[in-house]
């Protein structure tokens, strides 16, 4: 039996990734200058990065990793519940 035989686990991972992406975009929009202009995105990423003592580059890494982490957690939770 292949790891991809259960389509529901792929759906769970995709839904988790989409949720993480929405959360990351929402956090950047909320923490920066209002709106998703260049200034808003830049200041939002810098604010997110400042949480770990970095700047905008650290904010990019954090917001890029967030959907992966949430998607993996959703996949793991689904597999844990259904196995």
Structure description:
There is one protein chain. By secondary structure, this protein is mainly α. It has one domain (10-82). The protein has 3 helices and no strands. The protein has helices at 7-31, 38-50, 56-82. It is elongated and about 45 Å long. The two termini are 14 Å apart.
Concise description?
It is built from three helices and no strands. It is mostly helical and 83 residues long.
Features:
mainly alpha
Question: Topology, pairings included?
Answer:
Blueprint: H1 7-31, H2 38-50, H3 56-82
Helix pairs in contact: 1-2, 1-3, 2-3
Largest sheet: none
How far apart lie the N and C ends? 14 Å
Output the helix-strand order.
HHH
Compute the number of structural domains: 1
**Total beta strands:** 0
Radius of gyration: 16 Å
Number of helices: 3
User: Helix amount, in percent?
Assistant: over 70%
* Structural classification: mainly alpha
Beta-strand content estimate = under 5%
Overall average pLDDT? 83
Low-confidence runs (pLDDT<50, min 5 residues)? none
- Which outline best applies? elongated
